[in-house]
């Protein structure tokens, strides 16, 4: 089993943790607990870069290794990082579980070294007809983000090799 954790923080008061686990080549289970959100739906995505040096804007676009249009988590055509929406209750908290096959924690399309971003508005899942629907889901501003911690079970050498690969493949990655 491989595990990763993201700690989300923002200047807007949103905070929490999101855990990712994957058994072998099976789907990845995402479990999160966030607070400080406005009540309602919020777009929730894996973004391509783990760079948060300029806040959430430096995380790049949605993780999209196959070059597809934006869509819903259940759509065949979608960015790998399109995880849909999370729902915050009246108290501003969101607790959620997502199971997804397109966000592995190892292999050539691993999400380790990338970022999770929570958006201020609902993701229209590519179906809203807005000019941004097919690229971002028109999910609004990036209100919280965090970078994946290294997965459990990797040796120091494994982490060092992974960092070298990530820095080579993604020059904007913070090395």
UniProtKB/TrEMBL annotation:
EC number of the protein: 1.15.1.1
Q: Which GO terms describe its molecular function?
A: copper ion binding; superoxide dismutase activity
Q: Tell whether Disulfide bond is among the UniProt keywords.
A: yes
Domain (Superoxide dismutase copper/zinc binding) spans: 14-146
The protein's enzyme class = oxidoreductase
Required co-factor(s) are: Cu cation; Zn(2+)
> Sorted alphabetically, which Pfam families does this protein's record hold?
Sod_Cu (PF00080)
Per its UniProt record, what InterPro entries does this chain match?
Answer: SOD-like_Cu/Zn_dom_sf, SOD_Cu/Zn_/chaperone, SOD_Cu/Zn_BS, SOD_Cu_Zn_dom
GO annotation, biological process: cellular response to light intensity; cellular response to ozone; cellular response to salt stress; cellular response to UV-B
Keyword set, alphabetical order: Antioxidant, Copper, Disulfide bond, Metal-binding, Oxidoreductase, Zinc
The record lists the catalysed reaction(s) as: 2 superoxide + 2 H(+) = H2O2 + O2
CDD domains, alphabetically? Cu-Zn_Superoxide_Dismutase
Matching PANTHER family, A to Z? SUPEROXIDE DISMUTASE CU-ZN -RELATED
Record family assignment: Belongs to the Cu-Zn superoxide dismutase family.
Name of the featured protein: superoxide dismutase
């Amino acid at each position: 089993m491989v595990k990763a954790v993201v700690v989300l923080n923002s200047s807007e008061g949103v905070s929490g943790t999101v855990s990712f686990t994957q058994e072998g080549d099976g789907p990845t289970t995402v479990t999160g607990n966030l607070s400080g959100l406005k009540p309602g739906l919020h777009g929730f995505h894996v973004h391509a870069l783990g760079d948060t040096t300029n806040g959430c804007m430096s995380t790049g676009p949605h993780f999209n290794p196959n070059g597809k249009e934006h869509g819903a988590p259940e759509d065949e055509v979608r960015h790998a990082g399109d995880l849909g929406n999370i729902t915050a209750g009246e108290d501003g908290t969101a607790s959620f579980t997502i199971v997804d096959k397109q966000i592995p924690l190892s292999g050539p399309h691993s999400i380790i070294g990338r970022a999770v971003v929570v958006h201020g508005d609902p993701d229209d899942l590519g179906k809203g007809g807005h000019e941004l629907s097919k690229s971002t889901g028109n999910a609004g501003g990036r209100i919280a983000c965090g970078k994946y911690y290294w997965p459990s079970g990797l040796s120091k050498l494994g982490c060092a090799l992974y960092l070298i690969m990530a820095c080579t493949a993604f020059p904007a990655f913070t090395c």
